[in-house]
UniProtKB/TrEMBL annotation:
Residues 1-30 are annotated as: Disordered. Residues 216-266 form the G domain. The keyword Coiled coil applies. The lineage of its organism: Eukaryota, Metazoa, Chordata, Craniata, Vertebrata. Residues 428-528 form the NOA1/YqeH-like C-terminal domain. CDD domains: YqeH. InterPro entries: GTP-bd (IPR006073), Mito_transl_resp_regulator (IPR052807), NOA1/YqeH-like_C (IPR048422), P-loop_NTPase (IPR027417). Residues 14-30 have a biased composition (Low complexity). Keywords: Coiled coil. It comes from Trogon melanurus. This is NOA1 protein. It holds the Pfam family YqeH-like_C. It comes from the Eukaryota. One of its GO terms (molecular function) is GTP binding. Residues 272-299 form a coiled coil.
Length: 567
């Protein structure tokens, strides 16, 4: 019976248990995990910052004492980063919000309020957390300004010329609807923290805010890309030159709520000389063509092109000169395997490099904060393996289908759209992770298909068969009435929580009655106007005998490089 239970949990991708033994007699360390910011401890396996007591003692038992824990990561971060697995943690529902709220209410530094950098996932518009921001700030947070960053623009294809300007307008409208009046909105930027698109422009904009702002806080919902942006800024001209060698990277994972406490790096003072040198570097790089890049740069650019439609290089003007000292690095000092017993290490490891007092005594800091948990989100219902399939990690290739009344579209087993009434066929364009399957059926067969294939390979997510579906919420419906505006422009997006959306395109004045389904407890949104109104035009020829069109992937574009005229 126990073996059978373990097999079922393995199929479901069940949350793994912590390895190693706790020691309740050891007090918390006062040292933060360099990956998520939680305080390192070995007292309780289910609490944030847990390190097995054997590992904890091996790191803190040397001559440096607790300082030996500096740079170490907790077991949860290690599993996320190296095994893609997530430990379950007993966190109060408001834990992340309390950490952010307390951070924003710290005493003013440098006589100026903080600059708030709100990271918004453009795929999630309307952003579910943005309307909560005024309440999170309150009247007692004297913010010097709010800069909204629309992230993940690299995942969306250009459905028409000027699509980025349209996206920016959509973000501005979301800010206006959220009632962001207490903190003045200083700018809206569109970036990709992953591919580097728009980052150099964001750095320049942040440096122009130096004189009127204090510390900078990265805010946003879970999975918006805050930690990825934190790591990208850490390797840019925004941080002090030695910071990339001293400050550890934040743990980045598809699992919601990876960051548990504050992470930070010191911001460089953008003096006139530094601004001049930076501008000279940017001008020089703008004169290069892709053919003039080094082989290493070309390799990096080509790799990023595979991941997104929009790519940008993030350079560094101010680099710390390094000596030629060979560092004897022992990876076992900062890591462990669940397959091995913890060991004691007697060899001495090199002392970590630290900032000097003068470097940070008057520094302003950039803080990565815990993401605010999205309520009514389908990701909250999924296992870690399922989350990886649902969240898009590379350029989304739209999939368009032409459906007649009486036909049904399934997006995995997470969403369903029934075409109930209409006089003419309509086009349904799916914008979701390329790994999520789309299945077309008739209305008469739809219930039987869901009953038979939910939890199985055909619909793929959720996965785990009948046992998984017994605990998964049923699909609940919402009727939607739309009126078409033309065969090349969608009238609305039907957003199936965070699983993706379906853009509906219909003949002008054609009335459609649709019924859309999402799992109970998740949010279904009809987005009007649609985010990518001309998405149905990004398609190949109709596949004979099916409702599907061949897919079409648009070429990637590289920012800040001189074009050669070749396609």
């Amino acid at each position: 019976r126990e073996a059978g239970r373990q097999r079922r949990e393995k199929r479901r991708g069940a949350t793994p248990a912590a390895a190693g033994t706790p020691d309740p007699s050891v007090p918390p360390s006062g040292v933060s995990c360099s990956g998520c910011g939680a305080e390192l401890q070995c007292r309780e396996t289910a609490a944030p910052g847990f390190v097995p007591s054997e590992k904890y003692r091996s790191l803190s038992g040397g001559p440096s004492g607790l300082a030996g824990l500096r740079g170490a990561v907790c077991q949860r971060c290690w599993l996320l980063a190296h095994h893609g697995r997530a430990l379950g943690l007993r966190l109060p529902p408001e834990q992340h919000r309390r950490v952010v709220s307390a951070a924003l209410r710290r005493p003013l530094r440098h006589g100026r309020g903080p600059l708030l950098l709100y990271i918004l996932d453009v795929l999630e518009l309307p952003d579910p957390v943005l309307p909560q921001l005024p309440g999170l700030l309150g009247p007692d947070v004297p913010a010097s300004g709010l800069l909204v960053v629309g992230n993940k623009v690299d995942l969306l294809p250009a459905d028409s010329p000027g699509h980025l300007a349209r996206l920016r307008r959509r973000v501005a409208e979301a800010c206006e609807q959220a009632g962001l009046h207490d903190a003045p909105l200083v700018d809206i930027r569109l970036v990709s923290a992953k591919t580097g698109y728009g980052i150099e422009g964001l750095v320049s904009r942040l440096q122009r805010s130096w004189r009127c702002a204090g510390d900078v806080y990265l805010l946003g919902a879970t999975n918006s890309g805050k930690s990825t942006l934190f790591n990208t800024l850490l390797c840019s001209d925004y941080c002090k030159s030695r910071a990339p060698d001293i400050v550890d990277r934040a743990t980045v994972s598809a699992w919601p709520g990876t960051t548990l406490n504050l992470l930070k790096f010191p911001i460089i003072n953008p003096t006139c000389d530094r601004i001049f040198r930076r501008q000279e570097r940017l001008k020089e790089e703008a004169t290069k063509t892709e053919d003039q890049l080094s082989s290493e740069e070309k390799k990096c650019i080509n790799q990023l092109k595979k991941q997104g439609y929009l790519v940008g290089e993030v350079g560094r003007t101010f680099r710390q000169q390094k000596g030629s000292t060979v560092v004897d690095f022992d990876p076992d000092m900062l890591s462990y395997s669940l397959d091995e017993d913890p060991q004691d290490f007697t060899k001495q490891h090199k002392e970590r490099e630290e900032f000097t007092h003068n470097e940070v005594k008057d520094a302003r800091w950039c803080f990565d904060t815990p993401g605010i948990i999205k309520e009514n989100c389908v990701l909250n219902l999924l296992t870690e393996k399922e989350v990886k399939l649902v969240l898009p990690t590379c350029a989304i290739i739209p999939r368009t289908f032409i459906l007649k009344p009486g036909m049904v579209l399934f997006l995995a087993a997470l969403g369903r759209i029934d075409f109930l009434e209409g006089e003419k066929p309509a086009w349904f364009s799916v914008v979701a992770s390329n790994q999520l399957p789309v299945h077309i059926s008739t209305l008469s067969n739809a219930d039987a298909i869901y009953e038979k294939h939910a939890g199985q390979e055909l619909l793929k997510v959720p996965m785990g068969g009948e046992e998984r579906m017994k605990e998964f919420p049923p699909l609940v419906s919402q009727d939607i009435t739309l009126k078409g505006i033309g065969t090349t422009e969608a009238v609305a997006d039907i957003k199936l929580s965070s699983a993706g959306w379906v853009a509906v395109t219909a003949h002008a004045e054609e009335k459609l009655l649709l019924r859309a389904y999402t799992p109970k407890g998740t949010m279904l949104v009809v987005r009007e106007p649609p985010l990518l109104p001309h998405i149905s035009t990004i398609r190949g020829a109709r596949i004979p005998g099916t409702a599907a069109y061949r897919t079409k992937k648009l070429p990637s574009q590289v920012e800040n490089l001189k074009t050669t005229g070749k396609r």
